[in-house]
Amino acid sequence: MAIQKVSKVWEVPVLTLLELTIPRTAPSEWNRFYLSANIALCPLALLYSCKSFIPLDHKVVFLLPHSHFPLWSVVLFASTSLALVHYIVEREPPEREQLPVVLVAFVMSVFWISTVAGELLNCLAAIGTILDLPPAFLGLTVLAWGNSIGDLVADVAVAKAGQPAMAMAGCFACPMFNMLVGLGSALVSQTLNVYPSAYELQFHVSIVVAFVFLLFSLMGSLLVLTWSRFRVPRFWGFCLVGLYVVFMGVSLVIAKFSR
Question: A GO BP term, please (predicted)?
């Protein structure tokens, strides 16, 4: 009971912050105050997410000549003005979902996911420093489990619901999306930050081992599924689980002797 009360206390500020920055898309959940707060705060949050490209305190000329204001103050002034106008003018909820509101809700959801992921990476780096563990090993274990547990639960639920083909496609599509879009966008962003200098990748041996095991599992799955006429035999599932156990053992040994 006490744990539930503490959980409720922690949930209130988090849910309030999400309400203020993520607009509700359903007309039945329309709230004039929260939507006006969304208009005021969402541009500032998006500006914060782009701080690696544009500094928040970048000086700009606004309204008065020869006056230089920080960029964040100009954005906050403009968004707050629009929010006040919306709060005064709009008094009735929309009849149906509006596409701009849906897009803003999606973008802000991605913003919060990215922000939480960044803080998680900072926590992992701190744990690695305290325990003297390489960052690559933490990424292969804690971060990988955190990213994959949701996919595991969703794929199992879809398979039990009678859609094994969809679950199988999700098992391969999710890592492919992370590899191509996630890694690709991160590399593009980092190369833009250091341009015109070259961005040098620092590969740890654990990453090389992970690529080897990943390639082996993909090639093995391709051969086994082709040989079994695209039916997944039970023994291959045990083989994949065993392969992951071996991979974790090898990663632990490498992390222990590569300090």
Answer: sodium ion transport
110 and 205 part of one domain: no
Q: Distance between alpha carbon 258 and the CA centroid of its chain, in Å?
A: 30
Note whether 27 and 86 are same-domain residues. Answer: yes
Would the pTM of this model clear 0.70, i.e. be above it? no
Which structural domain range is residue 163 located in? 134-259
- Asked whether residue 120 falls in the same domain as residue 229, the answer is no
pLDDT score, position 63: 62
- Of the three residues 80, 100, 131, the one that is the final residue of a domain is 131
- The tally of domains found in the chain comes to 2
pLDDT per residue over 130-167, tens digit each?
877 777 677 777 777 777 777 788 888 888 888 888 88
| Burial (CB count <10 Å: 0-12, 13-18, 19+), residue 42 | buried
> Quick one: 23 and 114 in the same domain?
yes
Q: Which residue has the higher pLDDT, 256 or 168?
A: 168
24-55 pLDDT, tens digit per residue, is 887 777 888 888 888 888 888 888 888 777 77
Residue 243 has pLDDT above 90, yes or no: yes
